[in-house]
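Recap quiz, item 2
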Amino acid sequence: MWDYSDKVQEHFFSPRNAGAVQDANAVGDIGSLSCGDALRLTLKVDPASEVILEAGFQTFGCGSAIASSSALTEIIKGMTLDQALLVSNQDIADYLDGLPPEKMHCSVMGREALQAAVANYRGEEWKDDHEEGAMVCKCFAVDSKLVENTIRSNNLTTVEEVVNYTKAGGGCSACHEGVEEILTRVLAESGQTFAPGSAATAPAPARGKLTNLERIRRIENVIESIRPNLKRDHGDVELVDVDGKNVYVNMKGACVGCQMASVTLEGIQERIVEDLGEFVRVLPVAAKRLNG
Amino acid sequence: MTTLTQGIYFDNNATTMVAPEVVAAMLPYFTEQFGNPSSIHQFGNRVGVAIKQARAQVQALLGAEHDSEIVFTSCGTESDSTAILSAIRTQPERREIITTVVEHPAILALCEQLEKEGYTIHRLPVDGKGRLDLHAYQALLSERVAIVSVMWANNETGTLFPVEEMAELAKSAGVLFHTDAVQAVGKLPIDLKRTAIDMLSLSGHKLHAPKGIGVLYLRRNTRFRPLLRGGHQERGRRAGTENSAAIIALGKACEMALEHLEQEQTQVRTLRDRLEQGILAAVPNSFVTGDPDNRLPNTSNIAFEYIEGESILLLLNKLGIAASSGSACTSGSLEPSHVMRAMGIPYTAAHGTTRFSLSRYNTLDEVERVIAAIPPIVAQLRKLSPYWGENGPVENPEQAFAPAYS
Ligand SMILES: Cc1ncc(COP(=O)(O)O)c(C=O)c1O
Ligand code: FES
């Protein structure tokens, strides 16, 4: 069974704000066709202040869909609509002390229901712009649609590039077969064939001895190449110091306290090790303070 | 269940408790009887004798003509792969495979891979009750087909396929026939020598033997290519030192299954029927999936409309009741069970399908407790469901709640 946090279980077994709000003036209905889950969010909004006075949910879905709905209603009660619109699915997952990677889409559904309800209140039409496919990479919770779209829009041709752009495949590497399949399929669309052995575009790993400056530059480059992916998830990372075999970084934004933080660090470490051709350890800067 | 475990275990199609007698039978083979059966000395020889007995016990349960038709493998999945890969290696000119849309992933995922490698896979569809169209099947049989692989009993619904008849049809067309009987063995009488089945897979952990042991039945004179080559174990048809303790356990489990076969058809069936009737009578908008008139005696798969299976399982689990679901979320995939989709069960019901699978270790008291537990759980979840009103589904549920789908 899933590894649900206590908080998820608690919100599932005793959901808050279950049911429709009486005389609601905002309704958002959202379904995920792919997984069949569906959610109706009803809000009572104070017309003068636009503060959400009451929020209720009705959910047809699994344990984490119900828990995410419950968490969402708790988070947004008392917020203004504009504040509520800033709530991200990561916020919902964080509120629940994290969700298993396969279940992150449940929190996405909550956020979309909120957007739909606000649009409904404001008399606007809400258009969904998020597509979702089957989970490809469990280490980084990346689905096939994201991999596909990223390959297309950036003309990626190798697994390594997919790792660089999406993180998918950057951890345990068990999903490389799946990534190769997507590459094969997408490349075929434009008449190309996927060549597994083709040379990577990244600079070949350094072999001879590097000067200290070269070494730090290379580490910097690797970290720079990872930042866009983290930023997409509202996180970031900066290089703080290189001390012999130890590389200290500062995790920022959503990366702080994220359940994936350690996986992300591991991923960064792997990339640096690969690039330098020597072993280094990537550590959060907090560890340096402890050591020092 | 006997006092060995706590809680109520109604998930025997997923795996079963190892019978205490089976555990007792296998334990000596970890300690004093640890020898390698291939060895000449007495340590090995005694194990070899025990394996021979186990082979005979499996043979008896399957009604196989010869004990040499029993090949021990590591699991049902290995047996399935061995059967199909052998068939295509012995007949390289045949590039088609016939199977069904509702097979276990052990067959489906392999076929998908073979499809990528250029094979043509015919996946027979099923009707609303999960039944096959034998005319459509017959029309596909040709000298281009390397093998037919059709499950005997479906793991989700328990629905039985007429594999004996299908094997006859395959035989008259000169096509090899394999059946994944992982769910059927031990629950139904099987007499392979009277059938035209060429290969059959079984898995120990579905019949009160341990996990990690399986059998491929291979009819004498069937052309064969092993999956694993190496030593001469299993007459060279499956190399690798024998998992002797598990083989002896499987033998014991088969002997016990044969003794209790009648009980599956009477006692277990009665419990299952009582469970099903009790639940259907107490829960509105619920129905049995699959073919109720033609299925395993231990399995009941019930769709609870407008609620989702994982939620049901979590609430059942809180009460110490174990079952399983075809909902997307329990498997980590985004789609509800391929078996439910193949039968055309709508999403709003497919997600709420719950499988109860019993064994001879279950009791009437357990059945009554589950019957009592289900209605409040369903009611609780329906109260949360946007498709559900005060006392029933909202009117025209699919129209009244028609969310924007992403
Ligand atoms: C019909 C069917 N085939 C194959 C298998 C796989 O068996 P095993 O787990 O021994 O590999 C199962 C069990 O899950 C099954 O139900
Ligand atoms: S699953 Fe993708 S790297 Fe581990």
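Chain A touches chain B at residues 1, 9, 12-13, 15, 18-19, 29-40, 57-66, 102-103, 105, 109, 112, 116, 126, 128, 130-135 (CB under 8 Å).
Chain A has three domains: 6-121, 135-189, 212-290.
End of item.
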